Amino acid sequence: MSHEKQTQEFDVVIVGAGLAGLYQLLKLRQLGLTAVIIEKADQVGGTWHWNRYPGARCDIPSLEYSYQFDESLQQEWNWSEKYSAQPEILEYINHVADRFELRDGIKFNEEVIKAEFDEVNSSWKIKTSASNYESRFVIFATGCLSVPNKPDFEGLENFEGQLLQTSTWPQEEQSFSGKRVAIIGTGSSAIQSIPLIAEQADQLYVFQRTPNYSIPSNNGPMDKEREKEVKERYSEFRKDNWQNGFGIAAISDESLISETDINEVHQQLEENWESAGLGFFGGYADIPLDANSNDVAANFVRNKISEIVDDPDTAKILTPDYHIGGKRLCVDTGYFETFNRENVHLINLKENPITQISSLSLDADKTYEIDTLILATGFDAMTGALTGIDIIGRDGAKLKDQWENGAKSYLGLGIANFPNLFTVTGPGSPSVLSNMLPSIEQHVNWITDCIEWMNANDKKVIESSKTAEDNWMVLVNEIADMTIFTDTKSWYNGSNIEDKAKAFLPFIGVPVYTEMLEQVVAEDYKGFIFDRVN
Ligand code: FAD
Ligand code: NAP
Fold first, then answer.
1. Torsion angle in degrees (nearest 10) through CA of 108, 170, 439, 21
2. Judging by beta carbons within 10 Å of its beta carbon (0-12, 13-18, 19+), is residue 231 exposed, middle or buried?
3. Is the pLDDT of residue 45 over 50?
4. How high is the pLDDT of residue 150?
5. Ligand 2, from 166, 192, 496: best to mutate by most atoms within 8 Å of Cβ?
6. Distance between Cα 331 and ligand 1 center (Å)
């Protein structure tokens, strides 16, 4: 008797039950298709399930970082804070799963290991850790920031204390009371968690390789007047956001630092520092574009760091020397202030790298005796979840090999040689350089409309043309080259992962991207090939 599990058949297999996968399932069901989500976690939520570290919250206001596809959902859901914390966002995602009756379409605790295109039947054969599936389409909603980066520190495996990683934080409450805690990394996750861990820990050692710019969130309870005003014109409010380069409410999207009186600029930057959070970066249109204007904004934040941090040596180590925004800008609650606490110590890894981790200690400039080690070391961003699966397309093409010298995709939605495969917020789309939830909805709507169009026009198989894909990535890079993004080492260009191809992947500019997406559809999916005959 065969031990092979019976293959389950669907029109579409979706991988991932985060914000993207859930909405994709709903849309496909509305189209009358059979679809299933495969999710390796034991629950929905994606990012908001995995990242439960203290202080985890969105850094785009919740009134904007929320679904817009259902008017009654966006009217009825009330966020308690301007920037909601992880438990509330997870509650919201669970609410959406229940409200739209999505749970029976999700297989939890199953990891997709392999997906192979069967050219004879034009279908995908998908192997998971528990079962086999076959479907006409496969949609990867596997997330841009879902594969943790765990650096290979010498001796890490010998550590016997409490070992935590922000991106796979346990579901049980973690206590740091009376403990000597070390945290490695100073990106957004660390910047959010450090102030709260410092309040509990006996001693907190922050191991920093590269300092980051961070803007105060000025978070607080939801301003009810603001909420009312937005909800009264929610669809108009969302439309306005689509006009902003990063898809968020603009502060002053068009003024240029280079053309504004410097005193006025400083006054405006002060106002933005107090209120804008992430929007600080878009506060003037030339901050992302012009190195000199960028420097004005960067210097403003550098001065803030030296004003806030009492010890000049610590302030100096915390001060970045690259373009503001070159690495993803952070948003915090009391981050720089935390370094004025007596129990918080900053270690500069640029001068003294970590040499050894032992059973209860860590060696850098000296030996630190520790009880807890927290890795806040980021992700194999944008491509890690896809190259981690054995994806095989036409003629045995392997995605991992095809992307060895840098990921290529057409529109961030389709990949040459991989028919009937879509990615949500894939490389080459605004994704991580936008408010991600609207970008997710945009892609899910586009994919669903495309499948509907194929069915209406009797098309069986879609794939990106190689030329369209190549041209698209040239455009992505041409646009990036006009900005300050390309000359800083960041996870936007793969620099955080050893051996990863260094390629800048996000498309910069939500409005232009949206226009181009619409144009592709208007021209009957220009750049895609249907029912290719070999
Ligand atoms: P994810 O939420 O990452 O979900 C992908 C799912 O796929 C996961 O559940 C994963 O387990 C599953 N999966 C992956 N591979 C497999 C496999 N092989 N088999 C089975 N399942 C698999 N964006 C913003 O715009 N604003 C913010 O404020 C913001 N804050 C963030 C805070 C943190 C801590 C992080 C890490 C990211 C943040 N982001 C933010 C980005 C965030 O990732 C997106 O906004 C959004 O949540 C992504 O949703 P998703 O469904 O595309 O992917
Ligand atoms: P990250 O920004 O990539 O930060 C990782 C940190 O770890 C960096 O400081 C990095 O230093 C350091 N690091 C990595 N490998 C190291 C090594 N071998 N030795 C020493 N240090 C090392 O990751 P993240 O903080 O998890 O954030 C990732 C993204 O998720 C963010 O940029 C953002 O898009 C999203 N996010 C958002 C929020 C929010 O506020 N809503 C919160 C968390 C995350 P280098 O810079 O030198 O590489």
1. 0
2. middle
3. yes
4. 96
5. 496
6. 18
